[in-house]
Amino acid sequence: MLGGTSLSKVALSVALAVFSLGQVAHGLFPDEAGRIDWHRAQIGMPTKIVPYTNKDSSTGIFAITSRNTLASLNPDNGEITWRQIFDADEPIKALKLCDGQALTLSGTNKTHVRVWNADSGSLAWEFFQPADANYRNGSGAAEFLVGSKDVVAVAGDSFVRLTPNQSTPVWELALNATGAYKRIVVENKVAFVIGNARPTKKNPNPKLQVIEVDLKTGTVVRKYQVASDQSLDNSRLVVLESKEYGSYVVWREEKNIVWQIHRLGMTNPEWEMYHAKIVQTELMPPDMLTSTLHEIDTDPGLNVDKPRFAMNYIKDGKTKTVVVEMYRTGDKLEMRKIVGFRSDDAVIAGSGVSVSAKNSGSQPERAVLAVRTAGDVSWRRYTDTKTPTHTGEFVYDKGTYGPVTSALLYYTNGELRVLVQTSGGLIAALAPGGTEPLWFRDESLAHATDMVFLELPAPVSSAEYAAKATDPSVLSSPVTRYILRWVETFKSAASWVTSGFGAFDLFSGAHSSDPASRSVAESLAPKTPITVGDHFGFHKLSIFGTSIGVVAALSTKEGSRSWTRFLTDNGTPVAVENVFVTRRSQPLSDSPPLVTVVGRNADGNTIVVVLNALTGELIDESAFNVMPFSHAKVFELPAVDP
């Protein structure tokens, strides 16, 4: 009797201990306050990415993002090397890299010019102009000077030369509101400030305004207009920069089949360029009128001095792209096609055309890629032949990450890489011959607008418990269901104790030989959603809505992604504003919990979407609704879950 009493006391102690474990789910020990279980370092979706190679051949990837952040990423693994977050009222307008330094221009009513150490992200020096000067509301541009630590910048209605750690400009030139200046081209002794000329009654048609400035004195050498019916953002115009070859503006008027080439600093175009010589095939005039030009992203640290641009055109219903390079024959400059490819899509997005060139030993290497309007990216890699050594395309789930919006090429440790960005916040790096990313970043959560927690259903690991709990008489009694869940918990606890406190996971109801194996490794491949929690309610899902159309569910236990849904209306991302759990998890119920997402489409109409909260799938064909109105506010009523 005495022994039996002792055993009863032990059983009672175990029962109390397990019940106590259930209670601490709702509180924290003092030493747990402020601790972070996991976190994600984010930079936001890049609006500009610049790969850069230093003189010591070290590389980096630098970005300006839509979260107004300047960031440096490790090119080998995508991790954040450093980041600088700018104030909301100080938008970053320009980023340039040279000799291990990064130059930014930011601000609207107050202009800031800053130079950063590209390796560490520390501030080297800065200059700012108060709001009461002529620096307001300009688009902004900035450039390093050749062979100098000085910089020149356009801000508002002024053009200035700045030197490190000097509070006033070396000189300042008033632009007198003659244009919206967005581009600076620096040569040895002069700088060309280029913008869209202000329309006048005498000259109402758009043109480029060019001001040539002496870098030593800040005086105007000449001022003129060029390129009729053109602007800097026109798809039929590019600006080419080269220390050896000089700088040029190339454009085609809308109804003209001939390309004009203008050498900056001269008042007239030097020569004309014809399609047949560039594309190396005969084109009919209607085909010539489809041609567009696009500037090419290149690594400024590679010092590839030959000017290059991309030309797109359509022939026989097929879109084709050629990369054009300027070269010298004696004293004469010529243009030639260096590589080309075609696409089945109607148009190739010029902003995604990228070319890289680097000498590898005695062999010159070229690579080219292009983003197509269907949201795909493809690339070709060449050595000294016309046959590509590598071809490839990025294959992934667009329903999760959205279509590709831009791509570029960069080198790291002598190896060529393809960097891809999608509208759903994905940044991924691939090898030219690979199909799976070498690394990727998911920046969608940097644009989160709302978040809710979802209680996951408790695990059901006992066939006996499942049989009892599915009995209609049992389901009708919440008290019985509650008792049965605790019975199952006691069984889990007993197994954990009898196994010598081994690798049994009390919270998930599953054995694990390696605790680390419980972490879900993130991958671009579709993953199995987390649909079951633990016995005590520790494990939940945090469901995020974002302004870029992504709705994602993350495990609160380890931060891994359970599911992702990319919401679009007519191909445009839905700007999600609110997320609500409108039906919660029910024990052993055939009806899944629901999450309702409210946002707006591109026209401002209200979008209401109902998803399975455990899988992210639409609950049925009528779950995506476009309302004929634009909501002012969304309220959640204290209604009972159906």
From TrEMBL:
It comes from Kickxella alabastrina. This is Uncharacterized protein. It comes from the Eukaryota.
